[in-house]
Amino acid sequence: MSPILVALDYPDSAAALALADRLDPSQCRLKVGKELFTCAGPAVLEALHKRGFEVFLDLKFHDIPNTASKAVKAAAELGVWMVNVHASGGRRMMEACRGVLEQRTGPNPLLIAVTVLTSMERSDLAEIGLDLDPLDQVRRLAQLTHDSGLDGVVCSAQEVSLLREQLGSAFSLVTPGIRPLDSDKGDQRRIVTPPQAMAMGSSYLVIGRPITQAPDPARALQAIIDSLA
Ligand SMILES: O=c1ccn([C@@H]2O[C@H](COP(=O)(O)O)[C@@H](O)[C@H]2O)c(=O)[nH]1
In 3D, which of 170, 168, 188 has the Cα closest to residue 179? Predict the structure, then answer.
């Protein structure tokens, strides 16, 4: 199965489903984030599942343990393949989220946690009171996520080699901030090309605008897949 997760960052389900209809579920999974889920709700997940896609519901829950864990349970009941929280919500929050999944019968999504957003660099961390290199904060939060029993983290591919050494091969490393050489960086800061990310050990590559904003998104996806071969 392809490691590519296409980010469906669209303002309505018609646009998202129009793209999905041009893609093949054997070539990629899809990611539904805050914009699309807020406007289209669970119905868009049902429509994507009907088309045969596995879906990462990227809502990055960050709340007290009771609230975050109930949100994770609700996401699991929507049948998604992967769901996430913010690791900075802490160990008790992450353990509560893992706990609600353990109590369910039936298939569970992978549960992962965001470390440091790929749009952030050292100066952004300093402004929120963290005077350290993003790599150090990513390593700390990834260890906490691992110790809390989750399945993996969201990080930049720049951090993947060290996290693989630290946490082993079974831990999922999901990497946004992926940019083919000719594409615009936009608001991302810690970026890596698709072949480099795979070579360094990413489990999954999250790719949005380089595909969705391309003149021919299906062709852009195929070019990225070819670059990984
Ligand atoms: O640290 C993070 C966590 C999540 N994202 C999400 O990934 C995609 C990236 O889209 P691009 O258009 O390829 O930049 C987007 O949906 C983000 O919400 C991230 O970029 N970084």
Answer: 188
216 is catalytic: no
The answer to whether the CB of 198 falls within 8 A of the CB of 3 is yes
Check pocket membership of 118 for ligand 1, CB cut-off 6 A.
yes
Q: What CATH number did the domain enclosing 84 receive?
A: 3.20.20.70
Active site residue 60: yes
- DSSP letter (8 states) at residue 186: T
Q: Give the predicted TM-score (pTM) of the model.
A: 0.98
Count of all residues that appear for the chain in the document: 229
State the total domains in the chain.
Answer: 1
Q: Whose CA is nearest to atom 18 of ligand 1?
A: 33
> Which tens digits make up the pLDDT trace of 165-210?
999 999 999 999 999 999 999 999 999 999 999 999 999 999 999 9
Ligand 1 centroid to Cα of residue 105, in Å, is 31
Residue 21: which domain range? 4-228
Q: Which helix (H) or strand (E) holds 200?
A: helix 194-200
Q: How far is the CA of 7 from the centre of ligand 1 (A)?
A: 7
Does the active-site annotation cover 24? no
